[in-house]
Amino acid sequence: MTTIQIRDEYITLGQFLKLSDCISTGGQAKPFLEETRITVNGEPEQRRGRKLYRGDKIWIDGFDTFEIG
């Protein structure tokens, strides 16, 4: 599990994908979410605007499990 540190109260899933190096530009977020299975705290998620808070666990198929710190 990889921990991704944030400075603010929350980060959106789209921003998180860039920060975790799953995608290289924000424009890739929508197609990436449509093609890749992602769960947030065990629940499937496809909304790039989903707010992620410290302690949330994100699993991305083909990548890793991440935790927001």
Molecular structure report:
The chain is an alpha+beta fold and 69 residues long. It has a single domain (2-68), classed as Roll (Structural Genomics Hypothetical 15.5 Kd Protein In mrcA-pckA Intergenic Region, Chain A). It is built from 2 helices and 7 strands. Strands 1-7-6-3-4 form a 5-stranded mixed β-sheet, with no helix packed on it. It has a two-stranded antiparallel ribbon with strand order 2-5. Strand 6 (57-60) and strand 7 form a beta hairpin. The radius of gyration is 11 Å and the shape is globular.
Number of strands: 7
Low-confidence stretches: none
- Number of alpha- plus pi-helical segments: 2
CATH homologous superfamily descriptor: RNA-binding S4 domain
The coarse silhouette is globular
Strands in their spatial order, largest beta sheet: 1-7-6-3-4
Helix/sheet category: alpha+beta
CATH class: Alpha Beta
Write down the Rg: 11 Å
In N-to-C order, the SSE pattern is EEHHEEEEE
Name of the CATH architecture = Roll
Please indicate the count of domains: 1
